[in-house]
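ok so dumb question maybe but i'm new to this and my supervisor (M.) told me to 'just get the structure for Neuroligin-4, X-linked' and walked off. so i did the thing. is this what she meant?? sequence i used:
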Amino acid sequence: MHLYPSSAGCHIPTQHKGIFGKQGNKVPVMVYIHGESYEWNAGNPYDGRVLASYGNVVVVTINFRLGILGFLPAVDRTARGNYGLLDQVAALHWIQENIEEFGGDADNVTIFGHGYGAAFVNLLMLSPMAKGLFHRAIMQSGSSLSPWAIAHDSIEHTLHVARVLDCPVQHNTALVECMRKRDLQEIMNVEIKTPDYLTTFGPTVDGIVLPQDPAEIMERNSALFTQYDLLFGATRVESYFQFSAYEEKFGMDSERRDKVLRTMVRNLFTYHLQEIFLTIVNEYMDWSRPLLHPTDIFDGTIDAIGDALVVAPIIRVGSFHSGNPRDNYYYSSSATRDKKSFFYVFGYQSEFGDYSSRLGAVTGEDLAYVFGAPLVTSLSHFANNYTKTESTLSEILMLQWTNFAKFGDPNLSPPEGEGQSDNLRGRFEKVTWPVYDPVHQKYLSISMKPRVRDHYHAHRLSYWLNLIPRLHSSGGAEPFPSTVPSFDNGNLNELELKNESKTDANISLKIDSKENEKVSNRDNGNSSQSAGIPQNFYSTALIITVAVGCTLLVLNVVIFAGIYYQKEKDSLEKKLQKNFYQCSMSMINLLESVLIHQGFP
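this is what came out, is it supposed to look like this??
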């Protein structure tokens, strides 16, 4: 199925159960926001009838504008560009006004999405324009903090499209009018080179729909964000579709790994690129093996990409929601929240699925179980061959998702007669899903034998959540802790401390733009070179080098002149001695001749 962003309409198909609880009571509403891409897809392929019937909820899927039609930014920043997000807000308004006609409860609305759809869910939680339109949120394998969630360079891409279409770019109104006169296919055919792991046209910080950067809103203005209950999670493998089937089967060599990781580093970061790249390789390769097999290299690389793009960002969002960390690196458990957070990791891979069992559950495999595909012969685009135990797992997920939509807690069961929990007794191990907090970090590992665990991949995710922010910092603003005496233990070299303090107080870091241009021509992607050494250091070293060089040059000239002078002096003395000797001999010969001529013997 090929879905393109040519349909600009907002269509809202609704699937719902025929009987709405006891005596026709209103039931909760679950609104699914599709993902896969900011460029294509639609809500129509996701059939919510099984989920609605099993969980006794109303399931709504929506369509909205995508690509350049949905996220064309204003080049002069005089207008909004988040039309796709505005479509979603309009759909939520429609639900508030009309859902009761379908038996839904407008006061109990949950939005949920996967991938890019999860990023939309996160952004709606942060938008003042969506306030009061929903009450809970579910984010699966995506968040607003993923590097691809915000289109930071969309204005540059818009200018490129305008130049290709020969449209004016001085004023946004003139640009829009020009593009409206162009054929849609002509606009869609404009070739745009999107850097890997980033977005061409997508949500932007426009100051209205999205007033600030998502991280800033969640960190500093969390009142809006934390008014919703949140269920969030990921699968075991989140970057599977970034690689080929051949690489998944046979692996990759270290050269290919380095190209992939260097491209990601250069596209996502600005400072200390070499250090970041080397530490990624060090962190994700299995050095306990004497020789890295190509499949081992592939497994480490796919984990690194998945953690960077999906897992670490979504855990950071969960930590903001549950604890609102004071800064980007260390979380405090002192903050409390009225709304709850629940974290899961889906690790089960379907027995007759389309993917290799070596890696584990691939991103998107949990969707089939949430929508109830194992319970029916065929459902939408999902696979149609499941075992009985997989059907039970699907029932569990639908029960947990709809419980969360109803009560804000996946553990709570509906009143007698309104759910299917009794049918699952004895067929599945019951485990209480704990509330997530940034200190204990407990989560539910979803599989045939669900388990409560804590600190999911703590060491390698700490790399992205703690080390990388520190390493990527341009430095200079914060002194090294050794300059603070209370941070140390024992006697210190006071002279070194004084010198270090003066150095830290004076240095400032700047990026060498020429070096950046040189580096950007290597490998794939757009990037900047690290500027990890103070500029003053370069100036001092250059002055010393020039001074020493000049001194050596002068010394060489003096020595050469002395040697030359001494050599010329010796040569002149030899000539004088030779001339004196010749003159003396001539005088002697002349004197002898005179004496002989005078008669002397």
